[in-house]
Amino acid sequence: MRYVPFPESVLTYTDRGETVEYQDVRPSSQPLFHACPSSVLPPAIVYNPPSEPAWLGTLVHKLIAKVRLGEPLPENEAQVLEAGLVQSEDLEHEDTQVEFLLGRFAEAWGELVGDFPGPKQELRLSSPITSGTCDLFGRDQEVMSIGDWKTGSVYSNCKPQLMAYAYAAWVTYGMPNSGRISAHCIWLRMGRVDTWEFTADDMDDFEHRHFQQLEQVGKVFNPGTHCGFCPRQLECEGLREYERSAAKALIVAGVTNEVALSDTSVAELKSQRDAIKRAIDRYDSMLKARLMVKGRIECDAYAIELQQQNRASVHPIKAWPVLLDNLTEAELNDCMEISKTKAVNAVRAKAVRGKKKYAEQEFVDELEKADAINYHTVFQARKVAK
Known about the structure:
This protein is of the alpha+beta class. It has 13 helices and nine strands. The protein has three domains: 12-214, Lambda Exonuclease, Chain A (Alpha-Beta Complex), CATH 3.90.320; 236-305, no CATH class; 316-369, no CATH class. A five-stranded mixed β-sheet has the order 3-4-5-6-7.
């Protein structure tokens, strides 16, 4: 280990009552820190708007952390409440998909249990340069394994986060006899597990890279798609300049003959378009928050008010007899829409453990035989690896 003592010039700031040094970058912040070293600077204006994926991820992590590994899991929301794992208000939210993700957790744990000797959940791992709480940890003299649960539907590179956990475990316990630390990033929704094997040389490289990044804090700002996860995005001048240049590029492209733009130019504009979209989303969040407090704001030319709209919806079960009496089958088909995802999740939730995949496949097969599934093509521009 080539650990270098902290420089005397290290800056500190207060985070939730704790004095934090820039070296101590949380594992969960490592992907952002690797992309932009200055992201660890303390924000003067914290931007952390609530989001459905973040809310659901927190709830599922909260549930999993309270489950005793190896014991039967709750099969549905009623059993979750009966076990006292969360409060009822935590589950009073449309389409939480709690049962679906808990089922995926059970399946993943069944496949990984052999890799985690003496498993522990929510284990605090500390080191001088990175410390955090690991979702899943197991070790003996031969093996050391780390796991992190992901509930999102958008894939991202979590290797820096897992490497940080591995580094903290290495500092605390040393390297197992195998000479490797296994790290698993477990994507519950996707049914995917990314696994890395880290050696002592990898830990040295992580430490060296960490101090290289620290030397760039406050000097290097590297705006890009990762800015959407940065708490400093409201005050980062690097991001502002990037957005200004992106807006200019998009305006120029909009008045340029399409044939004159190369494929490379059009592809590069995708990142710039995404940056402007995030800026618009931030403005919309700020505007809504301001109007929620004040109800009305004004400028010289006009005023903006928060207006309430009541939108009517039809309860499908209660309305069914009325619909049958008044509409033909063709008319019913035109005005009804059923979510295949929600239907499949409901079938999985009712199936006994170990039979969920079978129940889902049988249900989908029956729908296919009834010619009840309509497929339509959706075209979406997405960035992929070269």
